[in-house]
Specification:
Largest sheet of chain C: none
Number of strands of chain C: 0
CATH superfamily of chain C: MetI-like
Number of helices of chain B: 14
Radius of gyration of chain B: 22 Å
CATH class of the largest domain in chain B: Alpha Beta
Strand content of chain B: 15-25%
Oligomer: heterotrimer
Helix content of chain B: 40-55%
CATH architecture of chain C: Orthogonal Bundle
Largest interface: A-C, 122 and 113 residues
Helix content of chain C: over 70%
CATH superfamily of the largest domain in chain B: Periplasmic binding protein-like II
CATH architecture of the largest domain in chain B: 3-Layer(aba) Sandwich
Chains: A mainly alpha (282), B alpha/beta (341), C mainly alpha (270)
Number of domains of chain C: 1
Number of strands of chain B: 10
Strand content of chain C: under 5%
């Protein structure tokens, strides 16, 4: 049984296709095979069905879908807001993970417990509760209903757990000896943070950011009540897809869905490239 | 190390898959089972159907009949049945949702050749306002006044939302107005619209949470909301559109299903639906309806009643003319307009 | 370990707490208030309804299956992605995140297109062999796995990357075989990542609504899940019960985190 390969492939990145050679053993290849079968049955084939359905109108179908001003506005709004919320999450998520792992204070446990709630709360109830707190009858006087800010709020709510939970385990596993050593060599706190801690967290942050963006562009349930789904203002892509389906136009629905798949893929790949550039191997 | 994983994966797969497939099979009532009925209905029917089913099971025809039910948005339900959801009877919000099942070959084209033209329950498009009607809204023209904040569900994403918009159109076209005038009126209404939630229930939730001055709603929902204690009132305008909810049996429906439909159309069934706020489709129903403006006269006649058939020439025409994805009149108004600005 | 100066520490704490409070804490309090508005009446009404109880059971069953499948897949996939090289690895890694980006409506549509019993790609064949996927448990489990697919993988990969394989190599050079290395070195090292992944997956599975709405058929007392029952109760003017059921769902997920926190060895801060 082979041992793990030493670190990364040592051939220079960008020269040919790194990692083309396989280090799989028979056992791991079989494991990969089983995993791929499941992945295909679950994800690849159903998504292929969407792409095939979208293709029924050929390229013209995609072009028409994108040319529709209402749809285009929805795509812009969705991507823009998802991007904004992801940036927000990168900052806040890392900060919260830091506080949860590296700090001790009364109530930290409670904070930890709250993080996963956005996942478990059925979206209709999340929407109702957010509407009650940040809508016309807001006790704090903050009314964002039927405005763009409501989209940001709802998306921030549903994506909160991602970066926090991906960074937490890594932060907890970080070898603090290196930080001590750097400190004893005279490095300032900011330098240690910037050059040692953050780079080690980058893969986790990037992983969480990809998930956060992906989830944000697909969100529907918690947005519905608070945003009012106004065309050109607060109408997101999910609503357009639903409208196409309701109107019997499966092809346009699938076309729009396919477009969003590619948007997501693009962002995921981009984040992957960024994190490879920035991350330092321990 | 991966041998372990492979092992684990195969072991899990070997035990999981057969167990899941055979053990947890929760298939819906098979429609060939001769003493069960599976009903697929639109969402608000859940409460309405409970007494109807219970009363049916007390009759001779209904003794021992088991019911499987599924409730949800009308369009979703229609698509589910087209996708294989077992159903003996479908009771949906509007006719096109049944027509698509006819096209899918699941419902016989003669489904609406009945005395009630296939319709099982009725309602009206009404204005839902804050308790006491502070703005004094009485007519459709009141809604078009500047500054009135309207909520109505989005006709693109909700089939039953179409009733509301068509009612607004009918207010002009049904009284002799031209298409251009009707278009102008509906545009004014949509300009006053501050939210287009996905469904009637979402729209109600948004309204109850404090958004808007008036909600374009259905009479039965409004009655149920008042009965449930929401601080709202509803206005039945002098002229409005009749909402007609169709019900049809599927081609291979079980025998008790036909009995059930007969029961639903009988005095007993229609009385139960009336108590839930739906206007009966047969004569002679007299019942107290909690939540109605006047519980002892719950369904006053509408002075000028529009219907899809009379005012619009039928759903097929209305659907393609007004709501087609690309060329529909309403689709174009919404698309070309900054709704709520 | 770098210690921040006290004012900075307090600033961070304040920001974190304020943000989470406004975004999640306060909505949670509202949920609790609404659920307990009539004391326990809403809970009694909700849970004396056999449909609600059944829906909770269905939700928990489906979620546990999804967690189990996703954990095996997640850990296996993470190990494959980090410790091995093979053609298409980067592409696969990108594709794994993709399910999270798919709108629930599209997930339902996609699964329906392939597995529905009338016109699906595989559906009719499967049903002819007695395997009903759509409107039945397998489809529901698949839809739930779909929405939570990347969670365990993405928890474990960064940790595996961070800890490196030095220990594993050392173990092997000392004569440990693959099983032993896995059991004694790798798995313990990723334990907490897996645990967080499991908790997240469970929470996500409990709360899944949109895709299940389409794939389950929402059959009362059969395939209806708790979130679907919540919507139904709300649409039928039984708000109190809707909140009560939601509270229970959130409570289950909260209890998991609480258990995890209690099991975590107290970290010693320097």
């Amino acid at each position: 049984m082979t041992t793990a390969v030493l670190g990364q492939d040592t051939r220079p990145v960008g020269r040919g296709r790194p990692g083309v050679h396989s280090t799989l053993t028979r056992g791991s290849a079989l494991g990969l095979g089983v995993a791929m079968i499941w992945f295909s049955l679950l994800v690849l084939i159903p998504l292929a069905a969407i792409v095939v359905t979208a293709g029924k109108d050929g390229w013209q179908g995609y072009v028409d879908t994108l040319k529709n001003p209402q749809t285009w506005a929805a795509i812009r709004l969705t991507v823009e807001q998802s991007f904004l919320v992801t940036v927000l999450n990168v900052v806040m998520g890392t900060l919260i993970a830091w506080v949860l792992v590296r700090d001790k204070f009364w109530g930290r446990g409670l904070l930890d417990v709250l993080i996963d709630i956005p996942f478990a709360m059925p979206t209709i109830v999340a929407g109702l509760v957010l509407l009650g707190l940040y809508g016309p009858n807001s006790p704090l006087g903050i009314n964002v209903s039927n405005q763009k800010a409501s989209v940001t709020l709802a998306l921030a709510f549903v994506t909160l757990p991602f970066i926090v939970r991906t960074v937490q385990p890594v932060l907890a596993e970080l070898d603090t000896d290196v930080e001590e050593a750097a400190a004893s060599l005279g490095a300032g706190k900011l330098t240690i943070l910037r050059r040692l801690v953050l780079p080690s967290l980058v893969p986790a942050i990037a992983a969480g950011a990809a998930l956060s963006f992906a989830r944000a562009i697909s969100e529907y349930g918690s947005l519905v009540l608070l945003s009012g789904m106004l065309p050109y203002k607060t109408e997101v892509v999910s609503v357009r897809v639903l409208s196409f389906i309701e109107g019997g136009d499966q092809t346009s629905a699938a076309a729009l869905a396919t477009i969003m798949l590619f948007v997501a893929l693009f962002v995921i790949v981009a984040l992957d490239i960024i994190q490879r550039r920035v991350a330092r191997r321990g | 190390m991966s041998k372990r994983i492979r092992f684990a994966a195969l072991a899990v797969a070997a035990t999981t898959i057969p167990a899941v497939l055979s053990g947890c099979a929760a298939s819906g009532g098979s429609s060939s089972n001769s003493d069960s009925v599976s009903v697929v209905g639109f969402s608000v029917l859940k409460t309405a159907n409970e007494p109807v089913i219970a009363d049916f099971q007390k009759t001779d025809a209904g003794k021992g009949v088991k019911f499987t039910t599924s409730y949800g948005a009308s369009g979703d339900q229609s698509r589910a049945v087209a996708g294989g959801l077992p159903a003996d009877e479908v009771h949906l919000s509007l006719e096109p949702d049944v027509a698509s099942l006819v096209s899918a070959g699941l419902v016989d084209p003669s489904w609406n050749q009945t005395p009630t033209k296939g319709i099982l329950t009725d309602s009206e498009v009404v204005f839902l306002v804050r308790k006491g009607n502070p703005l004094g809204i009485k007519t459709w023209d009141d809604l078009a006044k500047p500054g009135v904040k309207i909520i109505t569900p989005n006709p693109a994403s909700s089939g039953s939302a179409k009733w509301n918009i068509l009612a607004a159109w009918a207010h002009v076209s049904g009284q002799g107005g031209t298409d251009a005038q009707a278009k102008e009126f509906v545009t004014k209404i949509l300009k006053n619209t501050i939210a287009l939630p996905g469904s009637g229930s979402d729209a109600l939730a948004s309204f109850v949470a404090g958004n808007g001055d008036v909600l374009l709603a259905y009479e039965n929902d409004s009655i149920a909301a008042r009965a449930a204690g929401d601080a709202v009132d509803y206005i039945l305008p002098d002229d409005t559109l009749l909402i007609q909810n169709p019900a049809a049996l599927t081609k291979d429906a079980s025998a008790p299903a036909a009995d059930f439909l007969k029961f639903q159309l009988s005095t007993a069934g229609q009385t139960d639906y009336a108590k839930a706020g739906f206007r009966p489709v047969i004569q002679g129903i007299n019942v107290q309806v909690p939540g109605a403006n006047d519980p002892s006269n719950p369904f006053p006649a509408v002075k000028k009643q529009y219907t899809i058939d009379k005012t619009f020439g039928g759903w097929e025409k209305a659907n393609s003319e007004f709501f087609d994805d690309k060329t529909g009149i309403i689709t174009k108004i919404i698309s070309g307009l900054n709704v709520g600005s | 370990m770098v210690e921040l100066p006290t004012p900075a520490k307090w600033a961070l704490r304040l920001i974190a707490v304020a943000y989470v409070f406004l975004l999640v804490g306060w909505p949670m309090i509202t949920l609790v208030q609404n659920a307990f508005a009539d004391g326990l009446a809403s809970f009694q009404a909700a849970f004396s309804d056999p449909d609600v109880v059944h829906a909770m059971i269905v939700t928990i069953e489906i979620s546990l299956w999804a967690v189990a499948i996703n954990t095996v897949f997640g850990v296996g996939m993470a190990l494959l992605l980090v410790r091995y090289e093979f053609p298409g690895k980067r592409a696969l890694s990108a594709l794994i995140d993709l399910p999270m980006s798919v709108s629930p409506v599209v997930i339902g549509l996609a699964l329906l297109l392939v597995y529905n019993g009338r016109t699906g790609w595989f559906g009719p064949t499967l049903e002819a062999h007695g395997i009903q996927v759509i409107f039945n448990s397998p489809g529901m489990i698949m839809a739930t796995c779909f929405v939570a697919l990347p969670l365990v993988v993405r928890e474990v990969v960064p940790v595996l990357t961070e800890i490196g394989d030095d220990q594993e190599q050392a173990a092997t050079s000392l004569g440990a075989n693959a099983f032993q290395t896995l059991r004694r070195i790798t798995l313990p090292a990723i334990k907490w990542a897996v645990v967080y992944g499991v908790v997240l997956t469970l929470a996500r599975s409990l709360g899944e609504f949109g895709a299940l709405k389409i794939v389950s058929g929402n059959l009362t007392g059969q395939t209806q899940t708790a979130p679907l029952v919540v919507e139904q109760k709300y649409n039928n003017f039984a708000q109190g019960e809707a909140y009560a059921v939601s509270f229970i769902l959130v409570l289950i997920s909260v209890l998991c985190i609480v258990v995890v926190s209690l099991l975590r060895p107290k970290e010693s801060s320097s």
